[in-house]
Every structure is written in C-alpha cells, then in structure tokens.
Amino acid sequence: MSQYVDFFIRHDNGKFISIGDYSRSNPIYQALQYIVPYENATPFTKEIFDEAYNDLTRSIEGFKRSIEDYKKQNTLIATMSDPLNEKLERITENESLIKELEEEIETYTAQRYYLTLYFDMNDHWEKNEVWVGVEVSASYLNKEDKEETN
User: What angle do CA 143, 14, 30 make, to 5 degrees?
Assistant: First the structure.
C-alpha cells in the first residue's frame, strides 16, 4: 500500500479541503516524510517549507555534480587505449546516465516549484491556510464519519 503526503486548505470555518497528494516515489514526499506528522496534519510553515525546499535543492545539486563526473569520465575514456567499441559502449552508458540525471533535475525542479506554490497560498488566500501531513484525509481532519453523506 502506498503512502502519500497530503496538502490541504483549511478554511476560516475550520474545514479542510484536499488540494494535493504525492506518493512515496515523488520528491515532495521524500522531502517531507520525516518532518510532517503521520496520520495528522500541521500548518505548512516557513520552517517546513525551507527544510523541504533545501532538501530538493541539495538533490538537484548532487545530480549536477554527478553529471559533471560522468562528463569527466567520458573525456578520460576517450583517451584510453581500450578498443574503440569498448570505449563507445562505456561513453554511451554514461550518456544514458547523464540523460536520466537531467530528467531527475527537471522533475525535482518542477516539484520544488509546486512546493513553492503551496507555500505561497498562505500569503495569497486570506482566511485560509495550507496544512500538510502524511497519510491523512480531509474527512479525518474534519472529524467526519467514514460514511459520508452527500
């Protein structure tokens, strides 16, 4: 069973409305899983935002360093005396890894943007605030029974 980090808007009337959720495989989940409550929610504060944003940024920087390392390896491989087909195979493998890392950078950059959007909602939506938690539902936060009436 997959877990999710969940985002909510809490209206001035106290009601919570789900505005997004991210599974374990998502960078937002990975950045927040240990800093927000499990089966409950907390306001999405500047401290939580900063910690998660910085975590995503550190990952991006790590990906960039790895790309540079693979590029340096390719330069070295090209100068080696190994047979041409072996050199080309190793360079192709590294180029494939570089492409994967570039895609990760795009993903993490996009997720960092979404995280910023959620945080910025606190400033732009009067009388509403963003809350966040792991494995929590709006119905639980609103203290509704499992059988909801429409």
Answer: 75
Instruction: Give the pLDDT confidence score for residue 150 in this predicted structure.
Output: 43
Cα–Cα distances (Å) from 96 to 56, 75, 91, 107, 135, in that order, read 23, 15, 9, 17, 35
CB 7 within 8 Å of CB 130: yes
Radius of gyration, alpha carbons of the chain: 21
Query: Whole-model pTM?
Result: 0.85
The token duo for 88 is 């080309």
- The helix/strand/coil state of 56 is helix
The region that residue 143 occupies, defined by phi over 0 for left and psi between -120 and 50 for alpha, beta otherwise, is left
Half-sphere exposure of 123 toward its Cβ, with a 13 Å CA cutoff? 5
pLDDT digits (tens, 9 = 90+) for 92-144: 999 999 999 999 999 999 999 999 999 999 877 667 799 999 999 989 899 87
Residue 9: predicted pLDDT: 94
